[in-house]
Amino acid sequence: MKLVVVSAGLSVPSSTRLLGDRLAAAVVGRVPAAAPAEGPVAVEVVELRDLAVEIAHNLTTGFPGPALGAALDAVASADGLVVVTPVFSASYSGLFKSFFDVLDRDALGGKPVLIAATGGSARHSLVLEHALRPLFAYLRAVVVPTGVYAASEDWGAEGLAERIERAAGELAGLMSGLAGRRTVPSVPPALSVPSVPYAPSVVSEVASSAGSREPAAGPAPGAGRVRAGAFEVVPFEQQLAALRPE
Rounded to 5 degrees, what are φ and ψ at 105? Predict the structure, then answer.
C-alpha cells in the first residue's frame, strides 16, 4: 500500500512537515498489523513548497509541469493521504488550497484522508472542522474522525502524541479495510447459486425477436418444467404466454 503525505509548510525546517512525518510514522506502524497480506507501507511526501511555481502555472494554463504532474499522480494513486497545512488568516494556506484546486475533481473519491494543521495559537484549532473537513468532504474523500492540530505550545506537551496515535489508527483501519475489499472472496460451494432451467429459453426468445420480426417459436407445452419437491416450476415464457390475449 502507498501512503502519501501532502505538506504545505513553507519554512525549513517546518513544523508542518514534522507533524506530517510523525503522523506517517504512526500509520506505517499500524497498517501491517491490521493487513499483513498487504506488506509494508510505502510513504511518499509531496512538499507543496517546491511546487508553488508549477501550481500557479497550472492555474493559469490548465496544464501541470512534470513535477506537479508526478505529485498529482501520486496523490491519485495513494491508498491513503495525510494532509497538513499551516494556518494562515484562520484557514488553510492558499498554496494548500491551490494544489487541491488543480487536482482532478474525482481523484479523492472514497479515499481515506487524515487532516492536520499547525498554528501559533490553540485558538485556531477549529480550522480542522470549519475549513479542512468541509473541503475534503466536498472532494468526496473519507475523512477520519480525528483531526490533529498542533499549536506551538503542543510540541513536547501532553496530548499531542495521543491524538497522533488515535488519528493514525483510524486512517490505518480505513486503509486496511479498503485493501481487504480489493480481494474478491471465493464463493463456497454450499452458497453457490443454482442454475435456473428456464433462463436460456427466455434469453433465446429475446434474442430471436431482436433479430427478426417473425414471432419466435415457443417451447412445446410442458417443456422446461421441473419439479422442486412438491412444487412444479413453470418457465417464465409459459406463464407470460398464458396471460396474452388470444
Answer: -65, -20
